Amino acid sequence: MRASERLDRLPAYLFAELEKKIRAKKAEGVDVISLGIGDPDQPTPSVVIDALAEAARDPGTHQYPSNRGRPELREAFARFYDRRFGVALDADTEIMPALGAKECIFNLNLAFLDPGTCALAADPGYPVYTGGPLLAGAEAVLMPLLPERGFGPDLDAIAAEDRERARILYLNYPNNPTGAVVPEGLFERAVAFAQEHDVLIVHDASYTETTFDGYVAPSFLETPGAKDVGVEVFSLSKGWNMTGWRAAALVGNAEAVDAYWKLKSNIDSGMFEAVQLATAAALDAGPPEEMTAIYQRRRDAVVDTLREIGVDVAAPRGTIYVWAPVPDGHTSASYCELVLEESGVVVSPGGAFGQSGEGYFRISLTVADERLAEAVERLRSSLGG
Ligand SMILES: Cc1ncc(COP(=O)(O)O)c(C=O)c1O
Asked: pLDDT value at position 385?
């Protein structure tokens, strides 16, 4: 058996070594607490579950869905974007359901990239921005996200040759893994860049509904001219505690939405219609409000403790992550191993999100308060001195 060369192009899975060590710790009987993965621990709102149950009882939802999605869902996205962001979307041409942001981002690579072209991808960043282009036979050109630029890419630093062959530019704010919110003027600069270089801007809006301290995250599509050059991937996974449902949409530029539809009609058969109707109910209800307070409380507990043990960390205004520098003398991998060894707590090495993530580690706030409190206590007592 011989798997495709395409698969060989993917980088080594950097969590693999850590996972081996976690398994060994568990085998030793250690009660390991994982703050590694960002998967909300709270349940999906009951209004969504009720809508699913009702829709699933209707045999009219049981057949093949259409990839374009039911009008009820597209109209619910249009209402949500209007209410939440003041962005007007045409439910017929500018919205299409996606089976999660991950599916959508991956498939946009297939829809827009050819060999010899590239996508401009954040470093550190969500791995699909780099793995997707490789699997599409193209390349990912990394844009370092550095603290001195508020974790925004320096578009002026992109080499002339890369600007010319770029077809997609990925942005993601609030940002995973850095927790940064969009730097002032970045969306406007991205629109100008896209106009000049004929690049599709793909803004990953997976965390716009999870923000703190009164900060309200914008949609990229609020930016003048954005819809002419870009799309937004909006996901309900994090904001509504719906990671298992695979509920998202591609919204914005009609030509790009159409290309995505053309591609997907050859790949999958759309979203279960009962899930579409439940997602429409979720959008109309809005994200569960209590989540902001829950994550903000957890963020404060983590940030306070890290500062007490000498880690110089900024409190994020968005996402479900705390992004912190590792102490001097450590790589991100060696520090994560030390934390696991000394306290039985798993945190993610920043280097796993790209080379510019080296020197950082990421803590996810998606574990129950008691477990997080226990993890924080362990960090304080084992690393505090
Ligand atoms: C930045 C970012 N984009 C996309 C995703 C995937 O979202 P979904 O569950 O909608 O596929 C994640 C998940 O962690 C993410 O962090």
From this structure: 57
Whole-number Cα distances in Å, 166 to 101, 161, 370: 21, 9, 46
Which of the listed residues 238, 279, 323 should we mutate to test ligand 1's pocket, taking the one with most ligand atoms within 8 A of CB? 238
Per-residue confidence (pLDDT) for residue 20, from 0 to 100: 84
Q: How far is the CA of 103 from the centre of ligand 1 (A)?
A: 9
Q: Does the beta carbon of 178 lie inside 6 Å of ligand 1? A: no
Rounded Cα gap, residues 287 and 253, in angstroms: 25
> What is the distance between the terminal CA atoms of the chain, rounded to a whole angstrom?
53
Q: Ligand 1 in contact with 241 (CB < 6 A)?
A: no
Stretches in the chain below the pLDDT threshold 50: none
Peptide bond into 97 cis (omega under 30): no
Question: Phi, psi (5° rounding) for residue 143?
Answer: -115, 110
What is the CB neighbour count within 10 angstroms for residue 28?
9
Average pLDDT, rounded, for the chain: 95
Q: How far is the CA of 116 from the centre of ligand 1 (A)?
A: 27
